[in-house]
Automatic annotation (TrEMBL):
Species in which this protein is naturally found: Microbacterium oryzae
Domain (NADPH-dependent FMN reductase-like): residue spans on this chain: 5-155
Pfam family, one: FMN_red
GO molecular function, one term: oxidoreductase activity
Domain of life assignment: Bacteria
Keywords: Flavoprotein, FMN, Oxidoreductase
Annotated spans, Disordered: 190-216
Protein's name according to its UniProt entry: NADPH-dependent FMN reductase
Amino acid sequence: MDTVRIAVLSAGLSEPSSTRLLADRLTKAVLDLLDARGIRAEVSVIELRDHAHDVMNAMLTGFPAQALAGAMKQIADADALIAVTPIFSTSYSGLFKSFIDVLDREAIEGTPVLLGATAGTPRHSLAIDYAIRPLFTYLHAEPVPTGVFAAADDWGQGADRVAPLQKRVDRAARELVDVVAGRGRTEKVDPFSPESYLGAGGSFESLLGARSSDSL
């Protein structure tokens, strides 16, 4: 298999942040499993806090700055996505949603996604399934069944008495790797390119000729 491209989207606002910490842990678990299967991987990490101003400008103007456009392309070109957001007011952060809003609607169509979220208390643990998962499903991405939520207690001493964080991380990572390894590397086609509606090797001339013959 060719090198698998993994995009990691982290929407943490502080530096360092528990959101990035969870994103890194999920990424390591995925990379370890891919390596165990002899699959090479290339990782692109997008820290949304670095693009916050550009995201807002893109919402106002409709045009992303060069750095933001590069981050958006990394996600669109990825074979798999790891997306982690902090939870504010029972849902994903405004920065996270704003980035999704300026992302091309077809950028992650069919892309397997591992979802993660962080918050101060476990009370927000269901946010992945009632807020984040529907968002990615709407975009026709393919979230894996297990989402990983980490509260503040998950990083402390004596944490995870009920469901250890690393156990959840490993399970979600295995689900993502199973999908990636099963489908292999696929090239995404620009929906506005001639190939998307003419087919490989097609031409406008052949398409017009076919339509002319149909009209006869």
